[in-house]
Design a protein that fits this description.
Strands 3-2-1-4-5-6-7 form a seven-stranded parallel beta sheet, sandwiched between helices. Strands 10-9-8-11-12-13 form a six-stranded parallel beta sheet, with helices on both faces. It has 17 helices and 13 strands. It has helices at about 15-30, 50-55, 70-90, 100-115, 135-145, 155-160, 175-190, 190-195, 210-215, 215-230, 240-250, 265-275, 285-290, 305-310, 320-330, 345, 350-365, and strands spanning about 5-10, 35-40, 65, 95-100, 120, 145-150, 170, 205, 235-240, 255-260, 275-280, 295-300, 315. Helix 1 crosses helix 7 (about 175-190), helix 7 (about 175-190) crosses helix 12 (about 265-275) and helix 10 packs parallel to helix 15 (about 320-330). The chain is globular. It is α/β, with parallel strands linked by helices. The two termini are about 15 Å apart. It binds uridine-diphosphate-N-acetylglucosamine (UD1). Uridine-diphosphate-N-acetylglucosamine (UD1) binds near residues 102, 134, 209 and 283.
């Protein structure tokens, strides 16, 4: 048999571990590929990293670059330098990058500059807001990658508009694979509701970590509105991202607005599935809420996951406290529909990772026989 191709996945931040898990499983199931994992170390706390590798049963990284936090340029630059060394040692036939973080940007640039074929999982997403670091990362990753895997029809249409269609494949969404694969496991294993003394359908879940919402001027008023809603409408559970915790300092529980540590993947699936409403500025969580049948209210002015809005699973309230109050009340009074029929049309059949693995190996066979 021919020597297997060597594919190297580069990840670094929490949402990328979730995307890596099903792709890693799909690659392991094949005998024509050897898969290595490079962790940039962008996220390094146990609650932001280790718990995802453990719960999602991702093999331990072959290389950890231990980059840690820093300003965007410094963080990305340090990754680039160390990735170049790692790639020289690993000699990949192809590099896989995921999503839109600084680790995605560094992985793509490092590979492209070394003329290593590079493929981007979750390509074609656009918020059309270039003030978001993730938007810049997406644009560069898509335009510098050789193979693009689009999760949704809208993502595929963006790639087409940007002249990238000949290298693009509509694969479906690997995060849908992860939700379908882990949903029952979360149901069976997660102790989240009992541990928090919560009843399904009788709480809301909040996450906030984007820079626009976590500067001091925005976060204070947002937390006041959340406290008011938690006291007057429904208890809110608020797992705190380290960035948000750093800004809030010693924010204490106010009873109804409950501050907790970041959740692992299975607890998060359980927490989302059983919530009456999700309030978030995360990208992935908007989608996971839709996939798990929970209405979402997004604390942003625009979203790259526009299909969640079209399905009626998500609304945007930007930074308006009045809009947030109004939408929480609407959702709690039963003002949402059933979008479950649209999920497969948008995100595929839960086999995006298998399709990506098959396409990647077929494509490599064509360019590197
Ligand atoms: C990154 C991604 C974002 C993704 C988010 C998920 C970019 C540009 N952004 O943003 O797209 O939605 O991850 O969480 O890559 N910190 C810790 N411990 C950790 C990780 C971070 O304390 O394990 C703190 C650091 O003080 C750091 C801050 O959190 O300064 C922000 O971390 P960083 O990785 O720069 O960006 P995120 O906001 O997490």
């Amino acid at each position: 048999m021919a020597e297997p191709y060597h594919v190297v996945s580069v990840v670094g931040a929490r949402p990328q571990f979730v995307k890596l898990a099903p792709v890693s499983r799909a690659l392991s199931a094949r005998d024509d590929v050897r898969h290595s994992i490079v962790h940039t170390g962008q996220h390094y706390d146990a609650s932001m990293s280790d718990v995802f590798f453990d719960e999602l049963r991702i093999p331990q990284p072959d290389v950890d670059l231990e980059i840690g936090s820093g300003a965007h340029g410094r963080q990305t630059g340090r990754m680039l330098e160390k990735l170049e060394t790692a790639m020289t040692d690993l000699v990949p036939d192809a590099v896989l990058s995921y999503g839109d973080t600084n680790s995605t940007l560094a992985a793509t640039l490092a590979a492209a500059k070394m003329t290593i074929p590079v493929a981007h999982v979750e390509a074609g997403l656009r918020s059309f807001n270039r003030a978001m670091p993730e938007e810049i990362n997406r644009l560069v990753a898509d335009h510098c990658s050789d193979r693009l895997y689009a999760p949704t029809p809208a993502a595929m249409a963006h790639l087409e508009r940007e002249g990238l269609v000949s290298r693009s494949v509509r694969s479906g969404d690997v995060m849908f694979d992860a939700v379908l694969y882990n949903r029952e496991l979360a149901e069976a294993k997660s102790d989240f509701l009992r541990g928090q003394g919560l009843v399904a359908g009788q709480y809301g879940l909040v996450t906030v970590h984007r820079p626009v919402n976590t500067d001091k001027a925005s976060l204070g008023p947002l937390v006041s509105t959340l406290q008011e809603l938690a006291a007057g409408e429904i208890p809110l559970i608020f797992p705190l991202h380290p960035r948000t915790r750093a800004v809030l300092g010693e924010l204490r529980d106010t009873g109804a607005l409950r501050i907790i540590e970041p959740l692992g993947y299975l607890d998060m699936l359980k927490a989302v599935a059983a919530a009456a409403v999700v309030v978030t500025d995360s990208g992935g969580l908007q989608k996971e809420a839709a996939m798990l049948g929970t209405p979402c209210i997004t604390l942003r002015a625009e979203t790259e996951w526009t299909e969640t809005i079209d399905m009626g699973a998500n609304v945007l309230v930007g930074r308006s406290a009045d809009r947030l109050r109004e939408e929480v009340r609407r959702v709690l009074r039963g003002g949402t529909g059933d979008w479950s029929g649209a999920l497969r049309e948008q995100y595929g059949d839960g086999d995006a990772s298998r399709l990506i693995a098959a396409d990647l190996l077929g494509w490599l066979g064509g360019i590197k026989p």
